[in-house]
């Protein structure tokens, strides 16, 4: 290995750096300049603090900021707590395996689709109320109660939790799937610790470092989310991110300067939330250090165990019901309160819409496949190269890779659009692909770097000792051993690509239409049928990806017991 | 106001004098023939709101027609908010992209048009009047076809359809709808939680504010001019007194508002609201036709008239297929396309043409239209109140947000 020229491993790292840091930094510059008053196209050629002043004059700005931080942090911490409690209480049981099968596909549900379905489930005129009206409640008209868009953002927090739990769960599952974890469980049990106590005292301290970055990504995302906030969140005033988007889209173009200042504020908001989370993390760590070694066995854990299970089941049932409702809507023509099921069905229109969406579906699938393949290949290349130069640069690389996840999208997208336009490279498939990669690559890295690190190095050493080349080791040893995580990475990457709305719209100049852009456009109108159908289509692609990722290894490894997931 | 209108009309009359030939002859006009020749084989990216499947289907039909007849390919770019199109063109201008822009034609009006016009984002003035079908446009009786929110269109946008604020209600739940703003207020107070308006800055929410404003403002002439900051408080005092009285009786006690008109219409269908509103007089009939609303839904307007305007298509300054865009705009103005659009089973959008002045063969297309059970006749629709100057929009929205949108 020492004979490898040093320059070779640097290429993928440089490539990834340019691909990620380039757009992000250029995008940020394109946001900062207008924020300090510079936007020549509108005739603003000098610098001033006017946009910032204008921003702080906006009514309810502090409430918006507070809402963003509070709902984002609450949703993230609650999601983490639910996942950990459930994993602690049930990992390794039959119930756990059964629920896992439901949770992984839920990861592929796009945020907006989940929010639309959830809204129709819990609204005062929604499905749950219809189920009990009017026979049990006497309601012939929906009650006038504030369930959605409540000023405290409770509905929004619930929506975010329902969406983030599957993601954090999958990440925790991956972290748990390492050689010695099951032995810790056994050791804990043999020492007389309760199941939950074993997890929190022995297992969690070991796997927490592995799920920390995903949790931080969730915090950053939840404090800057636009679509869930717009559907379920408060509006008087709204959290900062949806207000930002509406300023960016205001026909009064001078608001753009203020919006740019707002984007910087959003950056500060997400940073504050992240800092708060990290501070809380330290506090919990130092406060619990003593409790870890008290030797208290915590055997009375029934309440905790069943509590965790109950919340998890509620989330799964709510999500599945929401999706079923979308399914019913997509075939419904008329469905008036208080009918539990549609009065008039119309499958014809469904097939019409499907027929018209075939082109969109093609573009979406092509984009998803291309960005998943490129992102996964690049990630593998970087990991392979990094193995051969363990240095401080790999830490820096890690930070760099997560930059696009930790920065709110809207804080640099407008700048990114200008960059693509001035390079005369927008409105094409490849431009959109490049933009997707900025957001897809970090997730690919997130999903793959850990299984890669976990791979027993003795395989490669044994191969090298009998003279296998680096390329051969990679293709014939590492890749087959990593088949399952690689396929999951491809599926995650494809799902992330399908979910991209703003980058597709802004970099694609509207010319690259996907199921997602179409579904957002339709959601702005009144046709629930079309909206529901498009949301389902949007869900179908990643779902297919995850199904393939689960089926292929099972088929290929059907004769190899040790390669199965469930051990 | 009247004088201004007359002046504009006079100006237009003189502009149009040389093209007084009928559209048939104009089709043989060499200048237009040149446009047709240039357009052949072009692709037009038409950025249009894509929220309504029936409108998307209509645009797809129109696209097929021009593809067959003129060899122009039209692709609808479905947008959720026209302002994002303004942003796109602005971004292109920011980096000096003066040709080959992504937007060839855009469905637009009001504030978005005013913003694009002011920032020089539109194609040179006058092209709309060169369209052969311009001759059929009802400039005389529909002054808003040349005055978009009081801003002269200067031929930088071509009219496409007429809009008028109408209210919808379910006659199965509500016998006699309120006919005045005061009656509406009493109704809301007697039935708390059954009336709402979308939250400004949503277009429809702002339109409701404008409707109350034009009905209560002490000095109506002030609305035709850019907003005077010093007098804004005084001008809007009656408006906000009205909204204050209404607020507590609104849906969800005014603590949440519907997102937009579509959301409000869904709430009407869900039975949460008793009254919703629309900018399309045939919306209720269309919604009944496609099953979205119960058959008992009907339309009403307020005594004394409601706000109305025209929506248009415009060509950005850097459009890459201007000729193709003109050919499509001209097709959209044709009696056949306009009559089809007015059919509530198709779309239900009122025409911008002067139907009385059409040749007999084309007039019959309109005369035989069934406007549906819930559409009011032109007499019932009452007078059109003009839109205030676009500068009022921001001012109203900001004042509203300060009062109700940021508790």
Automatic annotation (TrEMBL), chain A:
<keyword id="KW-0813">Transport</keyword>
<feature type="transmembrane region" description="Helical">
    <location>
        <begin position="401"/>
        <end position="423"/>
    </location>
</feature>
<dbReference type="InterPro" id="IPR000515">
    <property type="entry name" value="MetI-like"/>
</dbReference>
<dbReference type="InterPro" id="IPR035906">
    <property type="entry name" value="MetI-like_sf"/>
</dbReference>
<feature type="transmembrane region" description="Helical">
    <location>
        <begin position="532"/>
        <end position="556"/>
    </location>
</feature>
<dbReference type="Pfam" id="PF00528">
    <property type="entry name" value="BPD_transp_1"/>
</dbReference>
<protein>
    <submittedName>
        <fullName>ABC transporter permease</fullName>
    </submittedName>
</protein>
<comment type="similarity">
    <text>Belongs to the binding-protein-dependent transport system permease family.</text>
</comment>
<feature type="transmembrane region" description="Helical">
    <location>
        <begin position="429"/>
        <end position="448"/>
    </location>
</feature>
<feature type="transmembrane region" description="Helical">
    <location>
        <begin position="210"/>
        <end position="232"/>
    </location>
</feature>
<feature type="transmembrane region" description="Helical">
    <location>
        <begin position="306"/>
        <end position="332"/>
    </location>
</feature>
<keyword id="KW-0472">Membrane</keyword>
<keyword id="KW-1003">Cell membrane</keyword>
<feature type="domain" description="ABC transmembrane type-1">
    <location>
        <begin position="361"/>
        <end position="549"/>
    </location>
</feature>
<keyword id="KW-1133">Transmembrane helix</keyword>
<feature type="domain" description="ABC transmembrane type-1">
    <location>
        <begin position="61"/>
        <end position="276"/>
    </location>
</feature>
<feature type="transmembrane region" description="Helical">
    <location>
        <begin position="358"/>
        <end position="381"/>
    </location>
</feature>
<feature type="transmembrane region" description="Helical">
    <location>
        <begin position="481"/>
        <end position="502"/>
    </location>
</feature>
<feature type="transmembrane region" description="Helical">
    <location>
        <begin position="257"/>
        <end position="280"/>
    </location>
</feature>
<keyword id="KW-0812">Transmembrane</keyword>
<feature type="transmembrane region" description="Helical">
    <location>
        <begin position="61"/>
        <end position="88"/>
    </location>
</feature>
<feature type="transmembrane region" description="Helical">
    <location>
        <begin position="12"/>
        <end position="41"/>
    </location>
</feature>
Automatic annotation (TrEMBL), chain B:
<dbReference type="Pfam" id="PF13416">
    <property type="entry name" value="SBP_bac_8"/>
</dbReference>
<dbReference type="InterPro" id="IPR006059">
    <property type="entry name" value="SBP"/>
</dbReference>
<feature type="signal peptide">
    <location>
        <begin position="1"/>
        <end position="23"/>
    </location>
</feature>
<keyword id="KW-0574">Periplasm</keyword>
<keyword id="KW-0732">Signal</keyword>
<protein>
    <submittedName>
        <fullName>ABC transporter substrate-binding protein</fullName>
    </submittedName>
</protein>
<dbReference type="InterPro" id="IPR027020">
    <property type="entry name" value="YnjB"/>
</dbReference>
């Amino acid at each position: 290995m020492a004979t490898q020229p040093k320059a070779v491993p640097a290429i993928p790292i440089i490539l990834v750096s340019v691909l990620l840091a380039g757009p992000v930094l250029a995008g940020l510059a394109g946001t900062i300049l207008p924020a300090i008053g510079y936007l020549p196209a509108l005739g603003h050629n000098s610098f001033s603090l006017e946009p910032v002043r204008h921003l702080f004059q906006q009514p309810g700005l502090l409430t918006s900021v507070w809402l963003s931080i509070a709902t984002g942090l609450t949703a993230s911490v609650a999601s983490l707590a639910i996942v950990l409690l459930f994993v602690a209480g049930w990992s390794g049981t039959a119930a756990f395996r059964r629920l896992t099968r439901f949770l992984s596909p839920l990861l592929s549900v796009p945020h907006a689709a989940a929010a639309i379905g959830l809204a129709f489930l819990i609204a005062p005129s929604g499905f749950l109320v219809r189920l009990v009206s009017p026979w049990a409640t006497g309601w012939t008209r929906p009650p006038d109660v504030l369930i959605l868009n409540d000023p405290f953002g409770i509905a929004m927090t619930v929506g975010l939790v329902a969406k983030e739990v599957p993601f954090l769960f999958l990440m925790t599952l991956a972290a748990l799937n390492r050689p010695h974890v099951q032995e810790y469980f056994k050791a804990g049990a043999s020492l007389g610790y309760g199941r939950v106590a074993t997890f929190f005292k022995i297992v969690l301290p070991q796997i927490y470092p592995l799920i920390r970055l995903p949790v931080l990504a969730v915090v950053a995302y939840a404090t800057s989310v636009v679509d869930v906030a717009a559907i379920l969140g408060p509006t008087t005033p709204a959290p900062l991110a949806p207000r930002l988007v509406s300023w960016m889209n205001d026909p009064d173009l001078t608001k753009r300067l203020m919006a740019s200042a707002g984007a910087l504020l959003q950056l500060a908001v997400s940073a504050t939330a992240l800092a708060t989370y990290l501070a809380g993390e330290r506090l919990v760590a130092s406060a619990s250090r003593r409790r870890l070694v008290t030797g208290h066995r915590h055997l009375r854990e029934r309440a905790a165990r069943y509590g965790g299970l109950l919340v998890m089941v509620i989330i799964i049932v709510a999500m599945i019901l929401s999706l079923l409702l979308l399914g019913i809507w997509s075939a419904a023509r008329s469905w008036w309160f208080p009918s539990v099921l549609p009065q008039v069905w119309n499958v014809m229109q469904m097939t019409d819409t499907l027929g018209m969406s075939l082109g969109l579906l093609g573009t979406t699938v092509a984009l998803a496949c291309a960005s998943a393949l490129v992102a996964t290949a690049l990630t593998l290349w970087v990991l392979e190269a990094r193995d051969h130069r363990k240095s401080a640069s790999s830490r820096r690389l890690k930070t760099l890779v997560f930059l696009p996840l930790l920065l709110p999208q809207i804080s640099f997208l407008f700048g990114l659009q200008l960059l693509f336009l001035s390079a005369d490279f927008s409105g094409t498939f490849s431009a959109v692909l490049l933009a997707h990669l900025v957001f897809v690559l970090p997730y690919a890295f997130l999903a793959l770097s850990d299984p890669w690190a976990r791979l027993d190095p003795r395989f490669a050493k044994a191969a090298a000792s009998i003279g296998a080349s680096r390329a051969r080791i990679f293709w014939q040893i590492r890749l087959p051993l990593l088949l399952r995580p690689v396929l999951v990475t491809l599926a995650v990457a494809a799902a992330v690509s399908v979910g991209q709305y703003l980058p597709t719209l802004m970099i694609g100049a509207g010319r690259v239409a996907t199921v997602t852009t179409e579904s957002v456009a339709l959601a702005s109108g009144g046709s629930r049928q079309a909206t529901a159908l498009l949301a389902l289509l949007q869900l179908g692609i990643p779902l297919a990806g995850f199904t393939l990722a689960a089926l292929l290894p099972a088929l290929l490894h059907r004769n190899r017991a040790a390669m199965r997931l469930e051990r | 106001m009247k004088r201004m209108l007359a002046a504009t009309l006079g100006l237009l009359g003189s502009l149009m004098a040389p093209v007084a030939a009928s559209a048939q002859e104009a089709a043989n006009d060499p200048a237009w023939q040149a446009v047709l020749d240039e357009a052949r084989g072009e692709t037009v990216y038409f950025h249009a709101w894509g929220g309504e499947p029936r409108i998307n289907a209509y645009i797809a039909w129109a696209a097929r027609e021009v593809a067959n007849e003129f060899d122009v390919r039209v692709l609808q770019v479905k947008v959720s908010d026209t302002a994002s199109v303004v942003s796109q063109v602005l971004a292109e201008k920011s980096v000096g992209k003066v040709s080959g822009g992504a937007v060839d034609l855009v469905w637009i009006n009001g504030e978005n048009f005013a913003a694009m016009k002011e920032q020089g984002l539109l194609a040179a003035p006058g092209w709309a009047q060169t369209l052969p079908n311009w001759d059929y446009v009802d400039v005389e009786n529909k002054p808003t076809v040349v005055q978009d929110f009081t801003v002269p269109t200067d031929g930088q946008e071509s009219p496409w359809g007429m809009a008028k604020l109408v209210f919808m209600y379910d006659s199965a739940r509500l016998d006699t709808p309120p006919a005045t703003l005061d009656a509406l207020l009493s109704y809301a107070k007697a039935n708390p939680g059954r009336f709402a308006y979308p939250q400004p800055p949503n277009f429809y929410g702002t339109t409701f504010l404008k409707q109350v404003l034009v009905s209560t403002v002490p000095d109506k002439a002030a609305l035709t001019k850019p907003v005077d900051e010093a007098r804004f408080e005084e001008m809007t005092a009656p408006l906000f007194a009205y909204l204050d009285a209404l607020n507590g009786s609104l849906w969800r006690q005014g603590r949440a508002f519907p997102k937009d008109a579509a959301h409000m219409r869904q709430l009407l269908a869900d039975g949460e609201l008793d009254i919703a509103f629309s900018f399309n007089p045939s919306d209720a009939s269309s919604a009944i036709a496609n099953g979205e609303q119960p058959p008992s839904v009907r339309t009403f307007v307020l005594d004394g008239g409601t706000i109305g305007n025209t929506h248009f298509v415009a060509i950005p300054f850097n459009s890459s297929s201007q000729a193709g865009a003109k050919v499509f705009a001209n097709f959209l103005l044709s009696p056949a396309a306009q009559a089809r659009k007015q059919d509530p089973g198709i779309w239900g959008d009122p025409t911008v043409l002067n139907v009385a002045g059409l040749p007999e063969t084309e007039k019959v297309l309109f005369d035989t239209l069934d406007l549906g059970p819930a559409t009011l006749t032109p007499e019932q629709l009452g007078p059109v109140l003009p839109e205030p100057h676009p500068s009022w929009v921001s001012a109203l929205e900001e004042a509203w947000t300060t009062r109700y949108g940021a508790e």
